[in-house]
Amino acid sequence: MTDSPIRTRSTERRQTEREESPARDERERCPECEGRLVSDAEHAETVCEDCGLVVDEQEIDRGPEWRAFDAAEKDQKSRVGAPTTNMMHDQGLSTNIGWQDKDAYGKSLSSRQRQKMQRLRTWNERFRTRDSKERNLKQALGEIDRMASALGLPENVRETASVIYRRALEDDLLPGRSIEGVATASLYAAARQAGTPRSLDEITAVSRVEKDEIARTYRYVIRELGLEVKPADPESYVPRFASDLELSEETERRARQLLKTAKDTGIHSGKSPVGLAAAAVYAGALLTNEKVTQNDVSEVASISEVTIRNRYHELLEAEEQTVA
DNA sequence: ATGGTTTTTACTGCGTC
DNA sequence: GACGCGGTAAAAACCAT
To answer: What is the CATH number of the domain that holds A174?
Structure first.
């Protein structure tokens, strides 16, 4: 994978700057003394020959107005290149070779030239599709990064998500699906695999894609890639909820305990893991006399209060029976 | 598409601060 | 009276078939 010579950012800024400072007319005169103006290349100024008035500074572009701290950032921010259009898969940045066997003047090409052009077309097409995949990847990875930090997911999850996305790309799973959708699905899967799951609702909140599409794409990706994702363990939600609600270690421990016995009793099957976790946290707080309302828990867990009520009754009941 | 299960929504009543 | 909590019925969402 080598550095693509093509830069992806548009040239908007440069163009507007140019419009604001039109080319200086040679015969323009100094506004003060009507003296002849000369441009001083070394200092990039235009000065009056007679009175020394500096008429214009900074004619030349001394470089980017932004700073880049590493190569990747520089690559991202670079504004060199042709204007772009979103109507082409590569935003019109790549080379196009006409299909007609004519030269720039409209004359027909010799057969030797024709063959050469044909070869060039072939290769150009190959590079272009490879390029488009890379751009695709770049965009997706950026998106994954954005969502991951919004959800407070650690580095290793992003890594995993990237790997999943790459595999999806390799296996040609993209056609017919949006980059966004697959990126989101990858992250969702990665978070679950890493044992730091985020509910579909939470994911949806930071994604640009509808919940349905995420779920659909997720199932598809999992199936096609043969990924094994176990159903989320309710316990894996507990630490996050507990810390969001600023609850004690003890409460957290109790919540875990409740979930364990729930598993043993088998009342957890079929119920949503998030709901179970939320209920356990609430029940745990109850047992340690910490004040949390059902409403509080329902908000951090994005689960209805009713579900919490139903679940935590079951949890406590199961706990009592095992003790007895 | 369908039917069974779970979750959500909306509403009501009770007790407490 | 607002708030937290509990319960219920009906609607919606989910899931396997």
So the answer is: 1.10.472.10
